[in-house]
Design goal:
332 residues; globular; 8-stranded mixed beta sheet; 11% strand; alpha/beta
């Protein structure tokens, strides 16, 4: 298989490292020509995960996205969800014909309020059978330092998901296969929202005792939503305590690498949303996701008081301290 990676942030760089460590050659779309030159000259991404070095003979780096797509059998999309539409806007409708698409996105496309698979179907007629996700409790920084991590590859074609996952299996990365391609995407969206809330709680100087109760309730809230959105047939075959669901929620809420937790921590300490965004200087997917999920749940109708409160703090100017006093009253 010829792999193409779209995006050049920390997660895209981590996935490029994993594939090339397995001796896979990759076509890599990087928007900035200066970054391409620096990677070729210095063998690492100067902006993200600079400790990860590449065998450049395995890299074909280009700033023409159409050329990368044409040269690849499998496209790994690792562009932040807020920028997917602008990155793809000039592509013709048949760009992904005959391709497998793997989403490494942990968000909803904010302007159309869609998961990536729905957007790819509407714009490029990509069928769900050719769509896969790569998700899980896996911080890019720990991939760069080769700390043992786990990734889940999901698709309704589990055999193909397993074949794709095999290209990512290394001594420091274990792979798991899952068929809940819709549920894992929503879980990845929700865990970022709950991690923002965990960061806010930390910034407000709540302790570990409270945080453990908060996360336990967030996990329950997430499962209630997933059961409504994917239906009983899928839910009865899924273990929601596994790594791609509960594991990813836990690490995103607790880890100091979590940009969503960091973003929330700033808000809890009194930063405005705008100031926190400038200070972080990276995309916290949970910010846009909180609004998207609020809209989505108006149709789904799950009971989600924690996610709703985080949305109100971020988008409706609810004071963080007041919001968490409200959350205190509903935790079990």
């Amino acid at each position: 298989m010829q792999f193409g990676i779209l995006g050049s942030g920390s997660w895209a760089t981590a996935l490029a490292k994993i594939l090339t460590d397995n001796n896979n050659s990759i076509h890599w779309w990087i928007r900035n020509p200066g970054t391409i030159n620096q990677i070729l000259q210095r063998r690492h991404n100067p902006h993200y995960l600079s400790s990860a070095y590449f065998n450049t003979s395995l890299l074909t780096l280009q700033n023409d996205i159409a050329e990368v797509i044409e040269a690849s059998d499998v496209l790994v999309i690792a562009v932040p969800s807020a920028f997917v539409e602008s990155a793809f806007e000039t592509l013709p409708a048949n760009s992904f014909k005959g391709k497998k698409v793997m989403s490494a996105i942990k968000g909803i496309l904010p302007s159309c309020n869609q998961l990536l698979n729905d957007y790819m179907y509407d714009k490029f007629d990509l069928q769900i059978a050719d769509y896969f996700t790569v998700l899980g409790p896996c911080h890019a920084e720990e991939v760069a330092s080769e700390k043992l991590s786990y990734l889940t590859f999901s698709g309704i074609d589990e055999d193909m998901a397993a074949r794709l996952g095999a290209h990512f299996h290394t001594e420091y990365l274990n792979t798991v296969v899952n068929h809940d391609v819709i549920g894992v995407q929503y879980a990845a969206v929700l865990k970022n929202i709950y991690a923002l809330g965990a960061g806010i709680a930390h910034g407000l100087e709540y302790g570990d005792n409270f945080l453990s109760v908060y996360i336990a309730n967030a996990a329950d809230e997430m499962v209630c939503f997933l059961k409504k959105v994917v239906g009983d047939k899928v839910c009865n075959q899924v273990n929601y305590a596994s790594s791609v669901y509960l594991g990813d929620l836990l690490v995103t809420c607790y880890s100091l690498y979590s940009r969503n937790r960091t973003f929330g921590n700033m808000l809890g300490k009194g930063y405005s949303v705008q100031s926190a965004q400038l200070e972080l200087n990276m995309v916290a997917e949970g910010y846009n996701a909180s609004k998207c999920m609020f809209k989505t749940n108006q149709t789904v109708g799950a009971n989600m008081p924690i996610a709703k409160t985080v949305y109100q703090i971020l988008w409706q100017h609810l004071p963080a301290a007041e919001g968490f006093r409200n959350i205190e009253e509903i935790l079990l």
